[in-house]
Here is the input.
Amino acid sequence: MNFLEKKKILLIISGGIAAYKSLDLIRSLTKLQCEIKTILTKGGTEFVTPLSVASLSKNKVYSDIYSAENETEIDHISLSRWADLILIAPATSNIIAKMSQGISDDLATTVVQASNKNIFVCPAMNVRMWEHASNKQNIEKIKSYNYRIIGPFNGEMACGEYGDGRMADIEYILKELDNFFKSKSNNKKFRAIVTAGPTREYIDPVRYISNRSSGKQGYEIAKSLFNNGIETTLISGPSKLIPDPNINFLKVNTAEEMYKKTVESLPCDVAIFCAAVGDFKVKNLSEDKIKKNKDLNLDFEKNIDILKLISKNNNKPKLVIGFSAETSNLHLNSKQKLQNKGCDWIIANDVSKKDIGFDSDFNEVSIFYKDKNVGDEIIPKTYKSVVADEIVKRVINQLNLI
Ligand SMILES: Cc1cc2nc3c(=O)[nH]c(=O)nc-3n(C[C@H](O)[C@H](O)[C@H](O)COP(=O)(O)O)c2cc1C
Here is the structure.
């Protein structure tokens, strides 16, 4: 089956020697019945002519960001909204650097910056450029924005040098795109619930007890599930983050509300409980604002245990995953939690470290599986978005096995 059929591809051609290959790429994509629109960077026009690109793609070629004619349709926004996917091939070291920093000084980079679509990048450059520390950092940075990198390949370069930096072969690029649409289409049958952020446990109508969770890891997991074609509901405690508008979004304050919304959102195939739910709530909640001239004595009681209850629910998702935030004995505590809660996986993060965990863009997690045949795993320190992709990859593999 051809999963590329009728897909709308926005191809950005930047100014590298491999730009001539993009003509073959357009021909192959049209043969597979894709609809193609193209943006040529100024550099790109030095290597391929707009006329060749327009003839092969059978569509207008876009280049100029300040074109009065095009901007009646606001091209720098509408081009990305039109596309099912954005493909940058070849991607020069320059465009990668600009994308990593959010520089939007031409149509191509502005469209990418304004995009809400999956972005695939096919780097092509001299081996020294590819291996330069700045390029390596830029690649890591764009990976953290969930851009997917295809290639580069190893081999002889146009300049006669040898190494990594050749643009991936057309066949390989097509296979990657086809696999992407294939897995998206297969995953459409799955539904996911993700909880994220902190909860607020009220003392009186204006005061509450909460924790330092930002919601970043949960929001990234929800985004990654959605990007992989899974219908996703994100149930979030108070957070400054803005979810993708395509994700079903439910905002809550307390653990009780989070539990209620979770139950209402069942059934689903996978539930990932990433929220930092308050373990305790105030017993003697005051209906009125507590006055300063009074002594304040608070009694606490155990809060509702969402993970445990959902793991026991008649409508239990096929896969229930809990997060555990630990400051010590990560391994032991997580194994115990896995047993006590009755869930399928525990993903543990050490929140005692400054550079990972709460509010950081980075995380390092250990995954503990109920299935004794599967060994524990560590996802070493990386961006939370990359951790999310790694988790979602494992979730999809597991859902396909159940
Ligand atoms: C003959 C020639 C070949 C080039 N090939 C590449 C290349 O393969 N990869 C690359 O990153 N830059 C290459 N460059 C440099 C880019 O064209 C240059 O960085 C330019 O600013 C890229 O602009 P763009 O990314 O906006 O298209 C080449 C330049 C010349 C003159």
User: Anything to note?
Assistant: The chain has 13 helices and 20 strands.
